[in-house]
Amino acid sequence: MSAQTNMRPYWLSAPALLLYVGMFLIPMVMTLLLSFYSYDMTAGVVPGFSLANYAEVLGDSYFHKIFLRTLWMSVLVTFFCVLLGAPEAYILHRMSSPWKSICMLAILGPLLVSVVVRTLGWAILIGSKGIINETLMAIGIIDTPIKLMFTTTGVVIALIHVLIPFMVLSVWASLQKLDPKVESAGESLGASPFTVMRRIVIPQIMPGILSGSMIVFALTASAFATPSILGGRRLKVVATTVYDEFLGTLNWPLGAAIAVLLLVANILIITSYNKFIERKYAQAFK
Amino acid sequence: MSFLRLDGLVKKFGDFTAVERIDLDVEKGEFISLLGPSGCGKTTTLQMIAGFVDPTEGRIFINDVDVTRVKPSKRNLGIVFQSYALFHHMTVADNVAFGLEMRNIPKQERDERVRETLELVHLDQFSHRYPRELSGGQQQRVALARALVIRPEVLLLDEPLSALDAKIREDMQIELRAIQRKLGTTTILVTHDQSEAMAMSDRIAVMHEGRLAQVDRPYEAYERPSDSFVTKFLGKSNMFDGTGKGSSDGLGAIDVAGVEFLVRDVDIENGALVHVSVRPEKIRLIEAGKGRIDGTVTAQIFLGDQWVFQIETSLGAFDVVTQNTGGHQVGEGTTVGLDWSPEEVRVLARAVAK
Ligand SMILES: Nc1ncnc2c1ncn2[C@@H]1O[C@H](COP(=O)(O)OP(=O)(O)OP(=O)(O)O)[C@@H](O)[C@H]1O
Ligand SMILES: [Mg+2]
């Protein structure tokens, strides 16, 4: 009888576990193995064990540039998502009921639309014959179109738009846990609204900002659709490079090595950032 | 002139009037309770004093200065919220120091005042803990210390004890009162608990549907309620509708469904529509036939220090409370006589139903 009850949790988690092993763990392990194989122009993928692929990526300035560009974009996108998303969530939190739901829908709505469609929308907006440039030129603010297509700026702007709902959602969740009276308490003690924000609200919603930025950072670092549509061939990021290695050059082992390096870098950056913030705002996490 | 003055305060939320019209004068050092049932506008009134809600009409004076349009951060009031609203990311000491920091008080004096105040609320051992590591009663004290350390003009308390359980609540009532006496801080307490209001306040302001029904010392308000609402809200009462029968020799007479109630020192017009009320503890149980009315005991509850009886009479049910002085047993189903003296009968004008 007791043995039976003890087994139940395992049975219940079995489907999820199977899915996790089948869909995530096995491909991951296979990618890792693949990254140690070598590639030959004529023979294709040759099984074996060598670190040559890693040496190639780590030693080549071409790949350095791609990794640095990806890192820089991820930092920028995360930074602006915090800068725009956190206040957005706060304003949303303070709104009264009918508007609150309407604005919430407006913010979350884009999540219901495919990334590709949203990115194409941005292409229409920011292209040199796009709406933004046409309008600005028509009004006479600029003479030549601002170059946004195929630039880091353009990709970053589009990624911010794509990823900001995640930031808003996670900050919103931690705002829900905040007693609305703490702001009144701060004010009654003589703090200005700005001080209340800086000393009382922000430290307490730090967990939300942290989890939001981790999601945004990881998603930017591995983003594929937006950089490939708006960045094109010239503005390569890590994910599009992996894609090109797999489908263009057909050098699967090299692509796998890049993918593994991206994963490792992502994990390292996110965990150290997590540690840093948690130490700085230790009490907000309890 | 009084220290805190509310002059014709009105608050409307759209069409809904939450506070109808409040005039209140509070002396310096006085402890006043705003007492009333849920939704009568207590919190709204307190929030207007604090500055978080703008009055629709009326003005607020503190120390003769009109503060009606002054920002909450500039009013120098100490507020204790029902939820405590502590800063969970700061230690107890930092919570208390926050208000002093905002006033740019030098570190040394700040530390000294924080220490003093924490000592006052018996939390000096806990200054380095975080709020989450404290019990409800201790968190309550932090909130109090945080409000007191800035030496506020007025201390505002919104149901500060309602989240505590009965025993701690009683201890805190006594302690809060002692601290308030010691510091002499003018205090306004919002509560819907009449025993809490009576235990702590110099005066009680009973609120009813956005208005002040009566403002008086606890004993006066209990013994001489101004209307039937206050009578019922401040403890139990046996209340009946009656008609005046005139008065003679300092005794008024009122007829309640054939039973005559005599009242001391009240002039009653013949035919006046009134309520008469007698508090349960003012009624004595005696032998049947010898009292003013007879009744049958339908329920008898023992509370340790007292007995509570429900007695069915020709006028309806009476509540009677007697002290447990030992010995006496009445027993359910027995017929008893109810007696009271004319001094204990209260007469209140009866609003005629329109
Ligand atoms: N922001 C608001 N908008 C609309 N109505 C409100 C608002 N705040 C309060 N009210 C209404 O005003 C009335 C008085 O509210 P208030 O909070 O002052 O009551 P209270 O006496 O403190 O009650 P309780 O004992 O339940 O706390 C209530 O009917 C409430 O619904
Ligand atoms: Mg209230």
List low-pLDDT spans of chain B: none
Which class do the helix and strand fractions of chain A yield? mainly alpha
* Strand arrangement in the largest pleated sheet of chain B: 6-7-8-3-9-10
Total tally of structural domains of chain A:
1
Task: Please trace the helix and strand order of chain A, writing H or E for each element.
Answer: HEEHHHHHHHHHHH
From the 3D coordinates, which CATH architecture of chain A would you assign? Orthogonal Bundle
Instruction: Report the span from N to C terminus of chain B.
Output: 40 Å
Total beta strands of chain A? 2
Overall description:
The complex is a heterodimer of chains A (286) and B (354). The radius of gyration of chain A is 23 Å and the shape is globular. Chain A contains twelve helices and two strands; from the N terminus they run H-E-E-H-H-H-H-H-H-H-H-H-H-H. Chain A has a single domain (61-284), classed as MetI-like fold (Orthogonal Bundle). Chain A is mostly helical and 286 residues long. Chain B is an alpha+beta fold. Chain B has helices at 42-50, 92-102, 107-120, 136-148, 166-183, 194-200, 218-223, 228-233; strands at residues 4-13, 16-26, 31-35, 57-62, 65-66, 77-80, 154-158, 186-191, 203-208, 211-216, 238-248, 251-256, 259-264, 273-278, 284-286, 293-302, 306-313, 316-323, 335-339, 346-349. Chain B has a six-stranded mixed β-sheet with strand order 6-7-8-3-9-10, with helices on both faces. In chain B, strands 13-12-11-14-20 form a five-stranded antiparallel β-sheet, with no helix packed on it. Chain B is elongated and about 75 Å long. Classes of the chains: A mainly alpha (286), B alpha+beta (354). Chain A binds chain B through residues 179, 181-182, 184-192, 195, 199-200, 203-204, 281, 283-284, 286, and chain B through 50-52, 71-79, 81-83, 85-90, 98-99, 102-103, 130, 132, 146-147, 150. The complex binds adenosine-5'-triphosphate and magnesium ion. Magnesium ion is lined by residues 42-43 of chain B.
